[in-house]
Amino acid sequence: MSSTNTYTPLVIVCGGDDNFAMPTGVMLHSALLNLTPGIPVAIHVMSNGIKLASQAMIQRVVTQSGLPERNVSLSFLSVDTGVFEGFKTGPRHLNVSAYMRLLMPDLLPDHQRAIYLDADMVVHGNLAELWEQDFAGKDVWQWLILALALPRHLPEFTTTTNWGLMQILPISIRESWL
Fold first, then answer.
1. Would the pTM count as exceeding 0.85?
2. 28 Cβ partners below 8 Å, 6+ apart?
């Protein structure tokens, strides 16, 4: 693993509603425990109504998982999911919170990139290895938008793609939208 990473701190983004507060804590705990010591981390939780008590629980988990040698910050970003009124949702996995990742370029204006993790994941590897990969110029973001909006029009390989783990480039996305 290279130490030439110019993107610091490592940015983790996740989100959901209060029903996903406990899984969010578990996912963040696993991510922090497997991360190379000494790497600063900025965690942003997009909140679709995560209650204060649940936010406090997530904060405790992050604090306990952050290890003394790691600089970890945590913020909760309140999201107005009303902007997704009329978007397609389903009974199993696709609810309005799933669309919050579409707002990441606006919610993270100062970050050049971020790693998005679904709350229902357990991280078994070192996210620094993904962080150091150069995906510049790859239009992963456009595939995400298509996956959420037009699933029947996607190439066959995307039916097995896990959109719950992504490296996102918010600045280049924002620039492409302008």
1. no
2. 12, 14, 43, 58, 61, 62, 65
